[in-house]
Each structure stands twice: as C-alpha cells, then as structure tokens.
Amino acid sequence: MFHGKKAALGCLAALLLTTSAQAEDLSVEVFHNWVSGGESRALNAIASAFEAKGGNWVDFAVPGDSLAPAVTRIVAGDPVGSAKFNTGTDLDELYKAGLLSDIDSVATEQKWQQRLPDFVWKAITRDGHVYAVPINAQSEVWLWYSKPIFAKLRLTEPKTYDELFADLDKIKAAGIIPFAVGGQDWQLIILFNKILAGVAPDVYLQMQTADYEAAIKSDGFKRAAEIFGRLRAYDDEGSPGRQWNVAVNMVATGQAAMMVMGDWAKGEFTAAGQKAGVDYGCMLGPENDGIILTGDAFIFPKREAQRSGQLLLASVMLDQATQVAFNNAKGSMPSILDADVSQMDECTQKAMAVLQDRAKQLPGTPYVLSADRRQGMQDAISKYWSDEAAPPESLAQAMLETYQSTN
To answer: pTM score > 0.85 for this model?
Structure first.
C-alpha cells in the first residue's frame, strides 16, 4: 500500500511539473533587421542557443535601418518581446516612458558589470538598472580590399591618404571600380567618421562635447572633408542607394578593389566562402590609430506573457559560447571581456590588439549623441557627397547648423 501511495505521488509530481512547464511560456518575439546571408547565420547562433535551453524564438524581421516597426508596436501597447537597437542613447525615450523591463536579475547573476567594458556597461544602464543586452562590439573604421586585385596591380596597403589616392588612380586606369560605396546616409557617415578619426581623432572627440564649434571649424575637420570629397571620383554610377552587403560582394567578386564598412562586412565575406588574409584584406588605416566602437543590443519591452522567455534569452546572449559563435559569424567582436577569441579571424585579432590601449577606444556616435543630431549629421554628409562641386567649407557650415539646431 505504501508503494502504491508513493507511485501515485510520483505520478502527481510528474503531472504538476509537466503542467508547470506548459504554463511557463518561453516564447519571445524578436524584432531585428538582420536579413543578409552573414547576418542570418549570426542570428541563428543566438536563436539555436536559446531554443536549446527550451526557448521558442518567434522571428520578426524587417529589412532596413529603421527601428520604427518595433517602436510603433511598443508605444501602441502590442510590444515585441525583444528588439535589436543600437547600444546607447536610442533606448532613452522608451525608458523614460516606462515601457522597458529591466533584466537586473540576469545581469547580477552573470556579473555583467565585471565582464563588460565600462562604456558598454554605462550604455545599457539607466538609474542603476539594466535595460539591454550588448550582443557585440563593432569597429567602424575598416578598409576592405581584394587581395587578387592588389596582387595583380602590385599594390601594398596604403599607409597615408596620398598613397591611397595613388593606388585608386592605378586601379581606375586598369578598368576596375576603385572604391565601392553604399550611397546611403548611414554608410556615408561611417566613411566620413573613419576619415575624421584617422586624420584628426582629437576633432572627432571634440565634436562630441559642448565645444563642437571649434572642432567643426578646425583644420582637421576641413582636411577630412577634403579627403571625403575626393573619394567621390572613384565610386561608380550604381552607388546611390546601394545596400552595404552589395558593396561588400563587389569586392568579394573582384568587381571593385576597395570599400569601407564596419567589421560586420566579414560576415558577408565568410558567407561567400572567403578567408581573411587570403581572399580579402582588412586594414584600419590609412592613418588610423584608434578604433570607433559601436554595437548592437537587445532591449526587452514590458510584455508580461513573455517575461520568462525574456530572462532566458538575456542570459543566453551573454553566454561565452553564444558570444563567440555569434560574432564569428557576424564578423564583430564579443561584447564581453572574458570571451576566448583565440580562434577568431585575423581581422578581429588585429582590432583586439589595438584595443588593449584604452586611449584608442573611440566611442561611436550612438553612445554619446542624440538620434536627432546623428540624423542631422547624416543628412549634411549625404548632401555634401551628392554634390561633387560642393567645397569642404559647405560641409562644415551644414554640420555647424545641424549641431546648433539639435541637442
């Protein structure tokens, strides 16, 4: 009889556990705009790790650079469970409106503050609470080039912009597109910031302070504008509106010799079966001594039905194995300091070596500037790029007006 009761209690316990598991919804609807080949492979590393822990990843992908689809739903009271944002100021308005859930318990348990760079930790916290998971650290100052084209024309990596323009002339004379440019606002500002951070890093940093007027009127800013303007002569007619991954593939297939993009470009090279140092080259120069860092993070809007899944997803994202798998596919660097990067590509190794010097860590504009000011900068740079007759002074004037009209 005792054994019968014990068996019955065991069945009851099993039933309760099953019912509890069924009651706990580990589904999370995730908004993102990662739809290219390399991006999809990278995102799958997160989704697979999440589902291996019992989660249910519900994909909500919207191509493009806009956060509007996610923000609209959050504000309307029908929020996604998680949304990909830039690490930094973009989450401020949602935080101020009380529409975000903190993930303090996960951050405390996994000791995030000790495992993240200080500037990243500050970027994801508000008033002592954690509201985002930084999935990567991205560097935006890379010049990518075709190794076969460089070998054919006997070119070496240019150390100065004078050398770069001499190489571009040789490539153009050989009938090859010298410089593949994605002529979209956000891509053009990456190109300009790379140049500015290289030739005048002090000006780049000063533009993030209250003393921006002196920075914009400086000789360093003027030189960056001149170099940026000269590059207009080396792109091709297909540049306007071109997607970034298309520009990467132009280099990968030998249609173009060079292009500038963040380190996520490596994901596209990898998806094309190419290897760093063999099929393509990566360089921080010309003249760059520091690295502009940005990153992606996932926020968690208040959605009680998906709360358990949100916490599980947050913990998976900062797991060491997930960080390495994701960033290997994405081409970026892990956001955590304790990740084993020994098996990552040579471009990542090159960047990590530079970043050992804190003075060479330059904050990307999303960390420090408002969305309105960043948009104004993009508009000014795009307008300047599209007018080949515009002098460098016109960009300085437009940039100054943008800063004066935004906070």
So the answer is: no
> For residue 151, what are its two tokens?
């070998």
pLDDT band for position 24 (cuts 50, 70, 90): low
Give the mean pLDDT of 218-233.
97
CB 155 within 8 A of CB 163: no
- Confidence (pLDDT) at 136: 92
Please write the tens of the pLDDT for every residue from 92-120: 999 999 999 999 999 999 999 999 887 78
Q: Averaged over 342-361, what is the pLDDT?
A: 82
Pairing state between β 125-126 and 129-130: antiparallel
Predicted confidence (pLDDT) per residue in 362-377, tens digit:
888 888 888 899 999 9
